[in-house]
Amino acid sequence: MIIKNVRILGGEAADIRIEDGVIAEIGQDLTGPQEIDGRGAIALPGLVDLHTHLREPGREDAETVLTGTQSAAKGGYTAVHAMANTMPVADTAGVVEQIWRLGQEHGYCDVQPVGAVTVGLEGRQLAELGAMADSAARVRVFSDDGKCVDDAVLMRRALEYVKAFDGVVAQHAQEPKLTKDAQMNEGVVSGRLGLAGWPAVAEEAIIARDCLLAAHVGSRLHVCHVSTAGSVEIIRWAKGKGWNVTAEVTPHHLLLTDELVEESPVGSYNPIYKVNPPLRTSADVEALRAALADGTIDIVATDHAPHPVEDKETEWAAAAMGMIGLETALSVVQEAMVDTGLLDWAGVAERMSAAPARIGRLSGHGRPLEVGAPANIVLYDPTARTEIKPDMFASKSRNTPYEGISLPGKVVATFLRGKATVLEGKLA
Ligand SMILES: [Zn+2]
Domain Dihydroorotase catalytic: where (predicted)? Predict the structure, then answer.
């Protein structure tokens, strides 16, 4: 198969020949029995998400491994890390292998299970980290995401334990007592609306503590969904010390602010904007963009969090927290980072493919598009514009914050080891 006239990382147009799932040749005027016209599209290495909620097992009404990986493929992803807060929790070798096998069967993208840090995400005793690492799923990323490992002794032990198999602890940084009953970012807007605030310090205090713990035991820490300017300063400081700390930001924290809770295209108090960590201020957004551009924040991760309609279309206080994001991530990153001149497409490939694959130790993903690499490729038309409608998504859930908004770019095709999972913008 030949992909014709595609601009690799936005460079000069070239043809890519794929054979046996691998990039066999890159050049001009290549011909073959099956040709795909890539004119107008750029080619990026298949995207890798370090933070996806697939909801299976347990909440198949919100998402399944099948619909979640279809959603991922439509967003240009060839691999996702599936978070452990399923029912049952992915805290044993048996559960992570079950999720890994579901991923293998459904095939729209690779599914790499994340293992829970503590049994049942309860924060009381360490889960079977070693057994999950040794299982067929070969777990390397461990997280209680949705909850914070707030006990410093447990966090220290987890960081020590994962060193044995080159694992990483991915922390959802949220000091629980400072955020009890929190509904949105603590600030001017929460004051006006009378909603209980989620203060920046509740995130920053945990990140500072965990950076110190990771340095103390010589282990690898990854910070999930960084949302505040202060967190960026702490991570910059830790990296400056040479400590092994990486961090992610979500697309929504790069684009949206807490003012949407008060006034938005879909009214005020619309729970579509309720998410954890919450949308912050425009000053935070600016700091997050700068941090992603200068490498303080390593990657973009979606925190794709599907919820059924009845859990979102309810009053603010009762609504579930989270947004879907796999199918809009690349467009939002283009809007926030590329069209603003902060990143070029090589920078996007590093932050949405190479670096997340490195952090998650996924050797088959995130490789540069060159001869010999697995043909994990996304073709993306950055000149397209799409008005977002929730029913266009492959995800089972509809909780997108971008409804009615026009976003740049469109995923034209996605290839997983040479096999098309998406063609002409549709599932193949
Ligand atoms: Zn989280």
Answer: 41-229
Residue partners of 78: CB distance under 8 A and separation at least 6: 46, 47, 48, 109, 110, 365, 376, 378, 414, 415, 416, 421
pLDDT at 107: 78
- Flag whether 307 is marked binding: yes
| The Cα angle at residue 245 between residues 292 and 223, in degrees rounded to 5 | 70
Inter-residue contact 51 to 224 (CB < 8 Å): yes
Q: Is 222 annotated as a binding residue?
A: no
What is the span of the domain harbouring residue 238?
46-366
Query: How far is ligand 1, taken at its centre, from the CA of residue 274, in Å?
Result: 13
Give per-residue pLDDT as tens, 371-383. 999 999 999 999 9
> At 190, which CATH number?
3.20.20.140
Assess if residue 223 is contained within a domain.
Answer: yes
Answer whether residue 35 is part of any domain: no
CA of 374 to the centre of ligand 1 (A): 31
Tokens at 371, concatenated? 């001869």
pTM value surpassing 0.90 = yes
Max alpha carbon distance in the chain (Å)?
64
Catalytic positions, please?
A: 303
DSSP β-ladder status, 42-45 and 377-387: antiparallel
Specify the number of domains making up the chain.
Answer: 1
Lookup: tokens for 244 = 């092994």
Which helix H or strand E contains 131, and what residues bound it? helix 129-134
Q: Are 60 and 99 in contact (CB under 8 A)?
A: no
Consult the annotation and say whether 51 binds a ligand. Answer: yes
pLDDT digits (tens, 9 = 90+) for 35-90: 999 999 999 999 999 999 999 999 999 999 999 999 999 999 999 999 999 999 99
CA 246 centroid distance within chain: 14
Cα 224 to averaged position of ligand 1 atoms, centre (Å): 6
How many angstroms does the Cα of residue 136 sit away from the middle of ligand 1? 25
| Residue 54 among known ligand-binding residues | yes
Provide the 8-state DSSP code for 374: B
Based on its alpha-carbon atoms, the radius of gyration of the chain, rounded to whole angstroms, reads 20
Short-list 87, 156, 153, CA closest to 116: 87
